[in-house]
């Protein structure tokens, strides 16, 4: 765990207390069965917004607290632990695109609404099942046309940050914007979003690297959610091994299992360092592209292994819907495929390093 | 209060930085720029020319080779912040720390914690001045991973102990002046029958035989003790406390063996830079063998996160004021990654990377082969990976023994 300041410790403790008491995995089960349109509990989102979480990376003049990315990551990590469904990551990323690329007018118009939770934003980038950085959506005369596949939190969003062939655009939900469900294995909100001559406003600031800069934030914040998930799978698996008795011994006493847990513990340490390194790079402004690539690649690698081992080490009971561990496997694969698969990220790392 | 104190603290730091700069300017021989500290490894004796000697003595006199050790025993007495400034300024000037070795990395910190006043006054200053080499008398032929099974026996003879037995894998034993050893003083109790004592390697009855390794090098020795007299004043802590003291020393050892910093220096250039010299590149300057490129990226990403983990462990242990529990994790991960890198390097170079001797191979190719072979020891010594896994599982994760 990074060394935190007092403010960050308070924020993390607040998030941890809230998720533990108000939003445990049972809350996700409830969302899953009640199927609210947004894909999350509107009441829970309202509470999160009241606690100021939506404005953590938004500057103070625009209604945020500007606590920084490490702080945002701490909250997202806690949400990941209990699989809390919310548009916090998506809204934070949409806000960051406006912070980086918006005009003063755009910032003044949108950021306070995103910070207060009144508006939910999301990124509409990929056009196929793989994140590949190719965008064919077009804007002519201020009207956007194109289809975006698998948009996270699309159902609750009323503001889309859309990647078009020539840059990023803001599009409001309304005329020319239509959604069709693309339910994935994690059962969170994902949809195909079609823009058919929707009114679009370009983000003209942020320079040539705006799109990559936003994606790097997506990679790092997603990795923070994955870190919370990996930590939780590790913790519940360890608890389970300490309780389950076979051959008159608790499973935790078997060396074969001890060594596998030691391996996972080492992997988890690496993942935490990589994710915190990414968040700290965002706060310092240095080496972001490389740190983001390392953070998401490590998150992919470690959560992949952790979620698979979590099931195996639970044995048959890990295969049941009654046990939580399977939820993490399903969510893990969705996040693993988002904003860059492992091979995509290795390719990017090598390209950034010039080989 | 804070606003008043801060500028003062800053100016004190600035003054210290100036002091360091002036010291380096005056004492660091420019011809040594970019060199490394030969004393820091257990490789053979290195010729110490007049320039190296002058630099070592200047740093030793100041205590800055062991900057945070107490001044009264010859250390620098610096705060961590000041030690950091010292490191920064040395790096800027291309200066290395000429003080090192097992005395600095393992024995010194342990003796500072457990030694008597008299012992500290006798043994710490020569370490701080880089005058004495220490070796480690831990492993025995039947006490490797089961370290507490040791049989070297120290018999109480009133004013001294009479030591008989055999140690093995004594790193740098053939060049060491003294040995910190764990020996048995009571045969009836496996763990509480162990004591920690200091043995002079030049005493009668000490015999050292280097062991040739698969790498062709002999950095490890067998050490035989036959009726070696060890004065009572060389017992550290109480009789029977050796296991506790010895384990503490192992924590320092693990931290150093994994050491992100030293490992990074050891590894030198990025694997990708080397690969570009040996493998074909395409029109974009990228490695044409995309499978190899992917594997190198996979390694370098994990290596990055290991370095971040080592950095994090340092920060956390500073904040907690002690050796981090993560030291076992670092040892386990760092040595594994080091081995992986050596294997990848050999693969990148093909048969050219497997040269043993003679013409046709560069120095770095030849040393790469030795390093690859020697590197196999890293997951065995200093507590094997399996032992680190046991430590992590039991001490850190609280997984229990069979009931």
Structure description:
The complex is a heterodimer of chains A (355) and B (403). In chain A, 54% of the residues lie in helices and 14% in strands. Chain A has 355 residues and is an alpha+beta fold. Chain A has three domains: 111 residues, Acyl-CoA dehydrogenase/oxidase, N-terminal domain (Butyryl-Coa Dehydrogenase, subunit A, domain 1), CATH 1.10.540.10; 85 residues, Butyryl-CoA Dehydrogenase, subunit A, domain 2 (Beta Barrel); 144 residues, Butyryl-CoA Dehydrogenase, subunit A, domain 3, CATH 1.20.140.10. In chain A, strands 1, 2, 3, 4, 5, 6 and 7 form a seven-stranded mixed sheet that branches. A two-stranded antiparallel ribbon of chain A has the order 8-9. The longest helix of chain A has 34 residues. Chain A is globular and about 75 Å long. Chain B has 403 residues and is an alpha+beta fold. Chain B is built from twelve helices and eight strands. In chain B, a hairpin with a 3-residue loop joins strand 2 and strand 3. In chain B, helix 1 packs parallel to helix 3. Chain B is globular, with a radius of gyration of 23 Å. Chain A: Pfam families: Acyl-CoA_dh_1 (PF00441), Acyl-CoA_dh_N (PF02771). Chain A: This is Acyl-CoA dehydrogenase. Chain A: Keywords: FAD, Flavoprotein, Oxidoreductase.
Task: Describe the structure concisely for a colleague.
Chain A has 355 residues and is α+β, with helices and mostly antiparallel strands.
Provide the descriptors you would attach to this structure in a database record:
heterodimer, A: 355 residues, alpha+beta, Butyryl-CoA Dehydrogenase, subunit A, domain 2, Butyryl-CoA Dehydrogenase, subunit A, domain 3, two-stranded antiparallel ribbon, 54% helix, B: 403 residues, 8 strands, 47% helix, 12% strand
């Amino acid at each position: 765990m990074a060394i935190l300041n007092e403010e960050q410790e308070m924020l993390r403790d607040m998030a941890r207390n809230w998720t533990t008491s108000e939003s445990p995995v049972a809350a996700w089960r409830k969302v899953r069965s009640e199927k609210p349109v947004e894909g999350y509990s509107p009441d829970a989102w309202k509470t999160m917004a009241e606690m100021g979480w939506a404005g953590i990376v938004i500057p103070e003049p625009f209604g945020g607290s500007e606590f920084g990315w490490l702080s945002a990551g701490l909250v997202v990590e806690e949400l990941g632990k209990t699989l809390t469904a919310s548009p916090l990551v998506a809204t934070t990323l949409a806000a960051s695109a406006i912070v980086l690329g918006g005009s003063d007018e755009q910032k003044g118009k949108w950021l306070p609404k995103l910070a207060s939770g009144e508006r939910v934003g999301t990124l509409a980038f990929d056009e196929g099942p793989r994140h590949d950085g190719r965008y064919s959506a077009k804007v002519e005369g201020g009207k956007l046309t194109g289809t975006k596949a698998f948009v996270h939190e699309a159902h609750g969003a009323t503001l889309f940050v859309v990647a078009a062939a020539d840059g990023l655009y803001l599009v409001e939900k309304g005329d020319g914007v239509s959604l069709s469900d693309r339910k994935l294995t994690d059962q969170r909100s994902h949809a195909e979003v079609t823009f058919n001559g929707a009114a679009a406003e370009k983000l003209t600031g942020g320079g040539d690297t705006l799109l990559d800069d936003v994606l790097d934030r997506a990679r790092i914040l997603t990795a923070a959610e994955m870190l919370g998930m990996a930590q939780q799978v590790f913790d519940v698996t360890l608890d389970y091994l300490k309780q389950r008795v076979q051959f008159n011994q608790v499973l935790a006493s078997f060396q074969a299992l001890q060594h596998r847990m030691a391996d996972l513990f080492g992997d988890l340490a690496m993942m935490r360092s990589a994710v915190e390194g990414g968040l700290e790079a965002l706060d310092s402004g240095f080496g972001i592209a490389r740190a983001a690539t390392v953070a998401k690649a490590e998150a992919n690698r470690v959560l992949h292994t952790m979620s698979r081992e979590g099931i195996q080490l639970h044995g048959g009971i890990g295969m049941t819907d009654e046990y939580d561990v399977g939820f993490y496997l399903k969510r893990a694969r969705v996040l693993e495929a988002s904003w860059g698969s492992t091979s995509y990220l290795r390719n990017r790392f090598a390209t950034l390093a010039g080989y | 209060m804070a606003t008043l104190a801060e500028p003062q603290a800053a100016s004190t730091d600035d003054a210290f930085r100036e002091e360091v700069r002036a010291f380096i300017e005056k004492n660091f021989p420019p011809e040594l720029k970019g060199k490394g500290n030969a004393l820091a490894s257990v490789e053979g004796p290195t010729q110490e020319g007049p320039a190296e000697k002058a630099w070592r003595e200047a740093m030793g006199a100041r205590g800055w080779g062991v900057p945070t050790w107490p001044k009264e025993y010859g250390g620098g007495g610096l705060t961590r912040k000041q030690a950091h400034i010292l490191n920064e300024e040395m790096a800027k000037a291309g200066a290395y720390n000429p003080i090192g070795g097992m005395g600095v990395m393992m024995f010194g910190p342990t003796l500072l914690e457990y030694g008597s006043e008299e012992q500290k006054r006798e043994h710490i200053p020569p370490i701080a001045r880089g005058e004495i080499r220490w070796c480690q008398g831990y492993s025995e032929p039947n006490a490797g991973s089961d370290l507490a099974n040791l049989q070297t026996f120290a018999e109480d003879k009133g004013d001294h102990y009479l030591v008989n037995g055999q140690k093995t894998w004594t790193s740098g034993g053939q060049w060491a002046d003294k040995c910190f050893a764990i020996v048995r003083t009571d045969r009836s109790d496996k763990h509480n029958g162990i004591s920690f004592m200091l043995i002079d390697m030049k005493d009668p009855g000490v015999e050292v035989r280097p062991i040739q390794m698969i790498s062709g090098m002999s950095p490890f020795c067998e050490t035989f003790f036959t009726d070696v007299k060890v004065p009572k004043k060389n017992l550290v802590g109480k009789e029977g406390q050796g296991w506790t003291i010895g384990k503490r020393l192992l924590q320092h050892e693990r931290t150093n063996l994994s050491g992100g910093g030293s490992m990074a220096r050891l590894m030198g250039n990025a694997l990708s830079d080397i690969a570009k010299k040996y493998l074909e590149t395409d029109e974009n300057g990228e490695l044409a063998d995309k499978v190899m490129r992917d594997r190198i990226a996979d390694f370098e990403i994990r290596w990055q996160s290991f370095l971040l983990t080592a950095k994090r462990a340092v920060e956390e242990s500073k904040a907690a004021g002690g050796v981090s529990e993560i030291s076992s994790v670092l040892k386990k991960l760092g040595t594994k990654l080091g081995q992986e890198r050596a294997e990848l390097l050999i693969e990148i170079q093909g048969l050219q990377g497997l040269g043993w001797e003679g013409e046709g191979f560069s120095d770095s190719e030849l040393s790469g082969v030795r390093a690859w072979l020697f590197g196999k020891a890293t997951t065995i010594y200093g507590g094997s990976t399996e032992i680190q896994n046991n430590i992590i599982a039991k001490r850190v994760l609280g997984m229990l023994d069979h009931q």
